[in-house]
Specification:
CATH topology of the largest domain: Preprotein translocase SecY subunit
Radius of gyration: 24 Å
CATH superfamily of the largest domain: SecY subunit domain
Number of helices: 17
Oligomer: single chain
Structural class: mainly alpha
Distance between the termini: 11 Å
Shape: globular
Largest sheet: 3 strands, antiparallel
CATH architecture of the largest domain: Orthogonal Bundle
Order of helices and strands: HHHHHHHHHHHEEEEHHHHEHH
Strand order of the largest sheet: 4-1-5
Helix content: over 70%
Number of strands: 5
């Protein structure tokens, strides 16, 4: 097994195109990590670090996880990829509501470019709003000792430019590297916190550490099992004559995955649940305490809200990525049909029925794994440092990236990673 894995890694390095993509992705991630350590001018970093270490950071401690520790250092990339994720969520929801955006989404590549352009503009606006809010929050915790208009504008512009830069780096990875840039950046941010998590993990009582290690291993195995699970719908192509050649007459299948949306619903739900508590931090005083108590992590509204949002976004993103009507039309156009089902609308209804039933266990599984750490902490008072959301994102992104590398290897007739 190990020999095959190392042989596959050696084969991947032999392909010039794949090697360039891997090196390009590594270079972009190195730039991102460097920007996560460059502090914003005019901020008392020591005062902010004391605030985070004291446990008073609340929601900011969770946001710091997705920025790879950049928020705790008030670095140039402190906002991370979250403004871009929020903008993407808003644009995808607006695409369903606004007819003009829906028409653009159906125009193919050109329409997608327009939607991407609007997403970028919205990312800049959200980054600007979030930067202004952070300036007021940092000031309330005495991290801006000499704040004036010039210093305030400098911090706001730096944070906004940093978020725009992270968005650009993510798009570069998607276009010229390996994997989805947004997911890869979150992946490397979570992985960067692994050493500190292992240190806290090693300081736990031995029985608790063994129990959590078993839970983490079970979650990883379950995530791989659900992510790779699929329902294969058989498809038969009728024989037809094209010119002087006989075409068709073959059998194949449509692979419908149990979790077709991947880790995107978890990322979307986590970012959405951060909005109420972040808004409460801007209010300060009694408003901040109320929002933290009601919508803070480990509160019941947060747990139920995140679970429901994960289920919603799983169905929503699955509907965006797989259209049964288009699939049925394509099958009919090329002479394909599902045995026992009439072509056209009945085939679309059949595929939609299967996909709806198949997506439900995948969505419930994602929600259960995401809320698992909160339940452990609430009822057993055990801190699960490698949280369910983090494990879902890390394992899901790793599988997706390996699957893309697998496709490149198979195109060159090399044996891949996955079986």
């Amino acid at each position: 097994m190990n020999n095959k894995l190392w042989q596959s890694l050696a084969n991947s390095w032999k392909i010039p195109e794949l090697r360039k993509k891997v090196l390009f992705t590594a270079g972009i991630l190195a730039i991102y990590r460097f920007g996560s350590y460059v502090p914003v001018p005019g901020v008392d970093v020591k005062a902010l670090q004391e605030f985070f270490q004291s446990g008073a950071g609340g929601v900011f401690g969770f946001l710091d996880l997705f920025s790879g520790g950049a928020l705790g250092k008030v670095a140039v990339f402190a906002l991370g990829i979250m403004p871009y994720i929020t903008a993407s969520i808003i644009m995808q929801l607006l695409t369903v509501v606004i007819p003009k955006l829906e028409a653009l989404a159906k125009e193919g590549e050109q329409g997608q470019k327009e939607i991407t352009k609007y997403t970028r503009y919205l990312t800049v606006v959200l980054s600007l709003i979030q930067s202004v809010g952070y300036v007021f929050i940092f000031r309330s915790y005495h991290a801006l000792p000499n704040l004036d208009v010039v210093h305030g504008l400098l911090i706001i512009i730096t944070l906004t430019a940093g978020a725009t830069g992270v968005m650009w780096l993510g798009e570069l990875i998607t276009a010229r590297g390996i994997g989805n840039g947004m997911s890869i950046i979150i992946f490397i941010s979570i992985i960067s916190r692994l050493p500190s998590g292992l240190y806290k993990f090693s300081a736990m009582p031995i029985l608790s550490a063994i129990g959590l290690a078993i839970i983490a291993l079970a979650v990883i195995v379950a995530v791989i099992w659900i992510t790779t699970g699929e329902r294969r719908v058989p498809v038969q192509y009728a024989k037809r004559i094209v010119g002087r050649r006989m075409m068709g007459g073959t059998s194949t299948f449509i692979p419908l995955k149990v979790n077709m949306a991947g880790v995107i619903p978890v990322i979307f739900a986590s970012s959405m649940m951060m909005i109420p508590t972040t808004f409460g931090q801007f209010l300060g005083g009694g408003g901040q305490n109320w929002f933290t108590r009601v919508f803070g992590p480990s509160s019941w509204p947060y747990i139920f809200g995140e679970a429901l949002l994960i289920v919603f976004f799983t169905y929503f993103y699955t509907a965006v990525t797989f259209n049964p009507i288009d699939q049925a039309d394509n099958l009919k156009k090329y002479g394909g049909f599902v045995p026992g089902v009439r072509p056209g609308r009945p085939t679309a209804e059949y595929l939609d029925r299967i996909l709806t039933r198949l997506t439900l266990p995948g969505a419930l599984f994602l929600a259960a794994v995401a809320v698992l750490p909160y339940m452990l902490f609430k009822y057993m008072n055990v801190q699960f440092y490698f949280g369910g959301t983090s494990l879902l994102i890390v394992v899901g992104v790793a599988l997706d990236t390996m699957r893309q590398m697998e496709a490149q290897l198979l195109m060159r007739h090399y044996e891949g990673f996955l079986k």
